[in-house]
Specification:
Number of strands: 2
Shape: globular
Distance between the termini: 59 Å
Strand order of the largest sheet: 1-2
Largest sheet: 2 strands, antiparallel
Order of helices and strands: HHHEHEH
Helix content: 40-55%
Strand content: 5-15%
Length: about 90
């Protein structure tokens, strides 16, 4: 007797909008580089920069303290939440 196999569940496909290379503007390029990259890579590079420079707030880990290059990206704010950061960064992608 042959076993019937269930069709394997396909992996969730990434949204093509997130994979489309976006061009960072001059302010964001100072942090993530000037080549067009997908949003997911922008987030990875931004977090790598934040961790490398110790910019995550020590007491409240959800807050990011801006250095000079990030202050330009964060509309001049000295500190933003990680959720607000996403919104501010998307304004610098074109």
């Amino acid at each position: 007797m042959a076993k019937t196999t269930k069709p394997s569940k396909s992996k969730r496909k990434p949204n093509p909008a997130f994979m489309k290379p976006m061009q960072p503007d001059d302010k964001l390029s100072a942090v993530v580089g000037s080549k067009p990259i997908p949003r997911s890579e922008v987030a990875k590079k931004l977090w790598a920069y934040i961790k490398k420079n110790g910019l995550q707030d020590k007491k409240n880990k959800r807050m990011i303290n801006a250095d000079e290059p990030l202050k330009a990206v964060f509309a001049g704010k000295k500190q933003v939440s990680m959720f607000e950061m996403t919104k501010l960064v998307s304004a610098h992608l074109g």
